[in-house]
Amino acid sequence: MAVAGLATLGAAHAQGAPVEGKDYQKLSPPVPVASSGKVEVVEFFWYGCPHCNALEPYLNQWLAKLPPDVSFHRIHVGFTPVHAYHLKLFYALEAMGVEEQYHSKVFAAMHVAHQRLGQDSEILAWASSVGLDGAKLVSFMNSFSVAGKLPQAKQLTAAYHVEGVPTFGVQGRYITSPAMVGSETGVFNVLNALIATVRKQG
């Protein structure tokens, strides 16, 4: 989903009550979520997506103020073999316990340094440049546990009716995106409103 050139379009509208079918969509049937007592927000993304990269600073600002009753996690999409390769990178970093530390570094490598990170040799070189054990990272990428993340991600992507990224899901009931809202910043107003709606619904 493209959001380029939409930084201001619809931003004022997003300040008011979000409109179903315009700013967000209601999922039918809803996607089952864990009974954690928290409102679950998920971001569907792809490391190679320029719009996901552009959204990161705003997302990080929003996450810094996330209420304690809201949980957030990312789901890397696996639409094509290219997406699937980067999906393995994301979940390998997660399995190594360093995803939070290196997540932004992957975006920087791809969108600032213009590294493809599309094959093992490129991953090894990048890992070395940022102080990671490249051989260990590639080993995790090719592990059985990380391979199992691809069908899981595809299943959730389909269940949430995600056709492009970045897209957000809220409690398995709603989806929204900067492309729908028309603003990279306005989407967080919609997310806040949907979270409030879920709280009321219980």
UniProtKB/TrEMBL annotation:
Domain of life: Bacteria
Protease recorded as keyword: no
Cellular compartments annotated: Periplasm
Coiled coil: none
Sorted UniProt keywords: Disulfide bond, Periplasm, Redox-active center, Signal
A matching Pfam family: DSBA
Keyword Protease part of the UniProt annotation: no
Sequence ranges assigned to domain Thioredoxin in this UniProt record: 5-196
Family to which the UniProt record says this protein belongs: Belongs to the thioredoxin family. DsbA subfamily.
UniProt name for this protein: Thiol:disulfide interchange protein
Species, as recorded: Ideonella azotifigens
Organism lineage string: Bacteria, Pseudomonadati, Pseudomonadota, Betaproteobacteria, Burkholderiales
